[in-house]
Amino acid sequence: MTPTLNVLILNPLSDRHITTITNLVPQARITVSDLESAREYIENTDVIVAMGMTDIRPLFSQAPKLKWVHALTAGVENLVFPEMQNSNVVLTNSRGIHGIPVSEHVLSLILAFSRCLHVLIRQQIDKKWKRTLPDEIHEKTIGIIGLGSIGREIAKKSKGLGMQVLATKRRASQEIFVDKMYAPDKLLEMLSFCDFVVVSLPLTEETRELLRLEHFTAMKRSAYLINIARGDVIRQSDLVQALQEGLIRGAGLDVFDQEPLPEDSPLWDMPNVIISPHVAASSPYYLDRAIKTFADNLARYANGGEMFNIIDKSKGY
């Protein structure tokens, strides 16, 4: 008889999501709970499924049978803690499902800046009829810092719009949609060529405050920065200074070092900044994709197969 797998999911699910899991893994016993009630079920739990920002540490110490934690997000910052790192519990994420919405968000920001929509919307609010001088993104250069699955989707769409695509990546590889690859230690050189710079990196100890004033100084004064990764990848005070001093032309920011962004942040009132409240990956299809990814991995786990999207807990990605 196939043993039951007790799966505790700390996120609301619809019946169709549960069906997606149980159709692939009939022996899975699914419990959907909030953090407060999860203690009732944790003692017999084999697998925890949660968003990467969920703090499961209080549950972790009470889960003697726990073998695997899966993040419904790509980021796993709150799931990589000392007890997890020192355990045999496997950690996986939902890497690979974010490329479509995030790349569309990035391209919308690039087009908005290029066609001066950030200026025109403000003029509309003020009922001001004033022509602007829009630009084109055709043959402009985009630099992607971090060429994972999201970065590749951004590169593909950018190339389709006639842009020159540069990118940094830890390990060199041939990329069909990238014109030139740069090693991480050549980042400053790459930045000097870019009209748009997109940050697409996981947050780790290595990448925390990776982008500082020296990087903004290396960029073109006509360049725009777009961050859809994590706010802490950028030293935010340096970014504010760069925007105030005109070291770069503007920024499209979906993530911040403090969320929600405090009301007294100078970023709110900058006319050359477009702010979105950490929604770049949002999509009506997000949870469908995330649950399908988990269910596929659960089937592999149940059948003794090789799992995918395993996180190196020592590195955090």
Automatic annotation (TrEMBL):
One of its GO terms (molecular function) is oxidoreductase activity, acting on the CH-OH group of donors, NAD or NADP as acceptor. PROSITE patterns: D_2_HYDROXYACID_DH_1. Residues 107-280 form the D-isomer specific 2-hydroxyacid dehydrogenase NAD-binding domain. Residues 7-310 form the D-isomer specific 2-hydroxyacid dehydrogenase catalytic domain. Keywords: NAD, Oxidoreductase. InterPro entries: D-isomer_2_OHA_DH_cat_dom, D-isomer_DH_CS1, D-isomer_DH_NAD-bd, NAD(P)-bd_dom_sf. Pfam families: 2-Hacid_dh (PF00389), 2-Hacid_dh_C (PF02826). It comes from the Bacteria. The keyword NAD applies. PANTHER family: 2-HACID_DH_C DOMAIN-CONTAINING PROTEIN, D-ISOMER SPECIFIC 2-HYDROXYACID DEHYDROGENASE NAD-BINDING DOMAIN-CONTAINING PROTEIN. Belongs to the D-isomer specific 2-hydroxyacid dehydrogenase family. This is Phosphoglycerate dehydrogenase.
